[in-house]
Amino acid sequence: MALSRAPLSRRSFLLSSPKPPPFFSFFRYSPPLQLLPNCKIYNSASLHTEESMAPPLQFEAPSRKKFNWKPLCLYHTQGKCTKMDDPTHIERFNHSCSLKLERNGLGLKNFRAQKFDYFLVLDLEGKVEILEFPVLLFDAKTMNVVDLFHRFVRPTKMSEQRINEYIEGKYGKIGIDGVWHDTAIAFDDVIQQFEAWLAKHHLWRKEKGGLLKEAAFVTCGNWDLKTKVPQQCIVARMKLPPYFMEWINLKDIYLNFYKRRAPGMISMMRELQIPLLGSHHVGIDDTRNIARVMQHMLTDGALFQLTARRTSGFIFLFRRHSDQLIKGIDIFKTDRG
């Protein structure tokens, strides 16, 4: 479903060099509850029964009030919210995909024109089978998120008992297991709906060879599109769609631009002084945090280009210390964001 585009203030934080600032002392992520005795607890999904409104474990970053942060309604992200006329619900949950640019500065002097008009920010969840498939449509010119596609995915090769245990372990502790059970659909249905969403935005046509048009996937690591999507396609007995054959690994762009390695999203956010919002390892929250990292990098002057391409059995790699694509053996690691 299309969500409204919000105006974006184009501001830049000017740096003398692309090197990121040091670790910012107030940044913290979600350690075990006992380590944060004074933390505030938030709901992270739209829950449609009074009994399920008990707050899950989700921790407040010190700057959330500054960003006017509210958890996303996870029914709304899937086009299934039935409480849009409820003022209390609207006040409690976020129903917009827009991301305000958080940098202070004098302009966009460091900003570089990008090869792609849009980036599709993807961060899958689920180790055995995919459980969550979130994609943000990120405008490369405005640096804002203009729409999103979000579906929970129901495994097809697991028993109901195993699914229930799996979801309780993954999402129960943060209180969104109910919305998962209410909305999860099979992976092949997710892909069919995703292709309709891409076509609506004129980013893909099956008749044109099935490749993306003026857009590229961005992932935090190679695992999502190198490993997990092909595995899930085998489980679903479907051919790997052509638009999953190439992508941008944010870790490679970060390393080549800042000349320092970041193992994952959390380390990038530490280095760039970006507080974590939402719950880490909830896919839709992680995609939004990845998009905030991208905003920061783009205002610093980073150029986002393809880092991996799967073709004729080969994978073309982005050289980790230069801006060159090289043809070679598959040296990717199974890295997660």
Automatic annotation (TrEMBL):
Keyword terms of this UniProt record: Exonuclease, Hydrolase, Nuclease
Transmembrane segments: none
Lineage: Eukaryota, Viridiplantae, Streptophyta, Embryophyta, Tracheophyta
Annotated Exonuclease domain residues: 118-303
Name of one Pfam family that matches: RNase_T
InterPro entries given in the database record: 3-5_Exoribonuclease, ERI-1_3'hExo-like, Ribonucl_H, RNaseH-like_sf, RNaseH_sf
Protein name: Exonuclease domain-containing protein
Keyword check for Iron: no
MF terms in GO: 3'-5'-RNA exonuclease activity; nucleic acid binding
Gene3D superfamilies membership: Ribonuclease H-like superfamily/Ribonuclease H
